[in-house]
Amino acid sequence: MMDKTVKRGTRTGFTTGACSAAAARAAVLGLVNGAVPETVECLLPNGQRVSFAVLDGRCDGKTAHAMVIKDAGDDPDCTDKAHLTADVTLRTDLQGQVLLQGGFGVGTVTMPGLGLTVGGPAINPVPRRNIEDNVREAGHSLLDEVGLEIAISVPQGLEMAKKTLNARLGILGGISILGTTGIVKPYSTAAYRASVVQGVQVAGTTGSGMVALTTGGRTEKFVMAEYPDLPQACFVQMGDFLRYALDAAVKAKLPRVVIGGMVGKLTKIAQGETITHAGRAEVDTGLLADLCAGIGVPADVCADIRSAETARYASERVEALGLVLEFHQALAEKVVQTLLGRYPAKFELTVLVCDFDGRKLAEARG
After folding, report:
1. Range(s) for CATH 3.30.2110.10 in the chain?
2. Residue 182 backbone class (left: φ over 0; alpha: ψ -120 to 50; beta: rest)
3. What is the DSSP string of 47-111?
4. SS3 of 10-24
5. Could you tell me the CATH superfamily of domain 13-184?
6. Which has the closest alpha carbon to 258: 227, 218, 229?
7. What is the predicted pLDDT for the residue at 188?
8. Residue 7: its pLDDT value, please?
9. Contact 73/184 with Cβ under 8 angstroms?
10. Is 104 left (phi over 0), alpha (psi -120 to 50) or beta?
11. What phi and psi values does residue 358 have, to the nearest 5 degrees?
């Protein structure tokens, strides 16, 4: 395990959107000046201007090519070192227009719910505007007479996409071009939180009328086995972001929500926490002790559970008493009670509980 005294890296990086905009700007400057520059100053969505190194620049007067290598900083991003590539073509039939296309390695949108055109490239709205802003700023003299077609490609995008959830969201054939500020913050939760909300939105477009929220890969595998006929796009690993996932489900008017988890996260949910990260709040072992008392656990064991630090301790103690199923059933019912109190008449709720080996322990509905 990592020593808790060791600080994680703090070096920021740049998004795929920012790198795409920089490559596009450099290629346009190649058409304006006759040569693609080796560095380019790019306008980011947050208003900053940042210099990027430009590689593989070439221009023949009608087309130009430029590439920027993504530096994700200290963020463990699977798109780090991606080659964001822009090919720009003069279009005499599109005077004053900027036409943005997706090339190899940029995913194609095949499902609604992402706020992008089905059949179009997976270039999100903010990066799309940012690319166009940079192209128009650099190529304003050209746009008085012609249009510019910009094709963004990522040579490694097809392989990188296999490490993402893109296929589940209906984005096929490559990565998404993303970023709302242009800056990647290391170990940022914002990107993951946004992906949870996006996943729920996509689930709302499948016609299944439900979303299955899980706390991680192990619980997702368990819930998938419980609902083998449910489209894969309906399964969303919400991690710690329960509130964002449920708010998105309400907004999408999904009539049914399934939550799958294990004792620790479910205890956090049962006690009313809506962000279940370990650092946000301690497990309420008093709540677990009360649940145990309700299923007949001896008072001395309940006292031990109340003074313990972890939910897993309670699970182990009741298992030794042969009450593991009853305990987890009581916990599941408490989760239902807590969440339906927070979201009254918003959706039907099913809570599924598994053990640390992915075996089903309980199910409660409300």
Report:
1. 13-184
2. left
3. S-EEEEE-EEEEE-SSEEEEEEE---TTS--TTTT-EEEEEEEEETTSTT-EEEEE-TEE-EE-S
4. CCCEECHHHHHHHHH
5. CbiD-like (3.30.2110.10)
6. 227
7. 61
8. 43
9. yes
10. beta
11. 80, 15
Structure tokens at 94: 């599109």
Tokens standing for residue 327: 């305990």
Q: How many residues does the chain have?
A: 366
Please report the pLDDT score of residue 25 as a whole number.
98
DSSP-derived pairing of the beta strands 63-69 and 55-59 = antiparallel
CA distances from 112 to 79, 184, 256 (A): 24, 26, 20
Structure-block tokens of residue 127:
């990066």
Q: What's the whole-model pTM score?
A: 0.70
pLDDT means over runs of 10, the chain (366 residues): 41 94 98 98 96 98 97 85 98 97 96 85 95 98 97 97 87 93 76 87 95 90 95 91 95 97 93 70 88 96 90 90 96 97 96 92 96
